[in-house]
Design goal:
24% helix; three-stranded antiparallel β-sheet; alpha+beta; eight-stranded mixed β-sheet; single chain; Nucleoside Triphosphate Pyrophosphohydrolase; 218 residues
């Protein structure tokens, strides 16, 4: 396992890699729940009115490595109650584009300043059937660890982690998760410091993991 990553080199390599064809569903579906629709299924379904959304995957230097952050959502009515996610949300009419949505939501939810974010590029979009969201993830770099300010109405806990955590196969497993409509679903998950990250967030992490492995050759 590599214990140190040069931030500037990693940023340059990631930005270059994101400009090339992405692994997309090949990587995403390694961590997909059972019965998961593909993006092709979504487009072929004729659904013309998904909620357009975006999330921000922040990467920043910390403890001689690269860290990212996720957040635990509050227990409240809705499809994603109590789940782990990246900062993000729906596109709003005043947003210039989905990249602006991702940055705005990150500021609103965890206090990351817009001026501090350098967008390296997008990951592959992902459709979330249970809430009818078409989500565009963006990878953003910060030159230093951010001062975080949690929005207590939208975030129960902010979780920071070294991205090398993604490369530990022992932290992946599978179990049955309850869904908000009183059904259940078998799904793989990442064990993030005792939290089980599954569903769309795990699929985004899986694509990020694929790229990190390419860059640091692990």
């Amino acid at each position: 396992m590599i214990h140190q990553i040069n931030f500037q080199s990693f940023f340059a390599d990631m930005k270059s890699r994101l400009a090339q064809p992405l692994p997309g569903e090949t990587a995403q579906y390694k961590m997909a729940p059972a019965r998961r629709l593909t993006l092709t299924d979504f487009y072929e379904s004729g659904n013309k009115n998904p909620h357009r959304s975006a999330v921000l995957i922040c990467l920043y230097p910390h403890q001689q490595s690269i860290y990212t952050l996720l957040m635990l959502r509050p227990d409240e009515p809705g499809a994603h109650s109590g789940q782990i996610s990246f900062p993000g949300g729906r596109f709003e009419s005043h947003d210039v584009d989905l990249q602006a949505t991702a940055i705005r939501e990150a500021q609103e939810e965890v206090g990351i300043q817009e001026s501090a974010v350098i967008i390296a590029g997008p990951l592959s979009p992902l459709y979330i059937p249970v809430s009818n969201h078409l989500v565009q993830p963006f990878v953003g770099f910060l030159e230093e660890r951010p001062f975080l300010l949690k929005n207590d109405h939208e975030v129960r806990e902010i979780i920071e982690t070294d991205i090398l955590w993604l490369l530990d196969h022992s932290l992946k497993s599978s179990r049955t998760f309850p869904e908000f409509n009183f059904t259940s679903m078998e799904a793989p998950y990442y064990n993030l410091h005792g939290h089980h990250v599954w569903g769309a967030t795990a699929m985004m992490l899986s694509e990020l993991e694929h790229l990190v492995r390419e860059i640091i050759k692990q």
